[in-house]
Design goal:
By secondary structure, the protein is of the alpha+beta class. It is built from 2 helices and 2 strands, in the order E-H-E-H. It has one domain.
């Protein structure tokens, strides 16, 4: 993770196991190749940038 404290939207990060820590999950190794090639992804902070790059929303509602 490389964080730009002057402009957080300029921050980047990467991690190897993908979006899931479960070995047999379909997203387990999503980020292995980008990590191996040193291809970071942006860390979005501003609401407009997060909204513009959102693919899905998970809404947790208490019972």
């Amino acid at each position: 993770m490389i964080v730009d404290l002057e402009n957080l939207d300029n921050s980047i990060a990467i991690h190897t196991p993908g979006q899931s820590g479960h070995a047999f999950h379909k997203h387990y190794n999503d980020m292995v190749d980008p990590w191996r090639k040193i291809e970071y992804h942006p860390m979005l902070w501003e609401r407009k940038n997060v909204t513009a790059n959102t693919a899905e929303i998970l809404k947790l509602v208490p019972k």
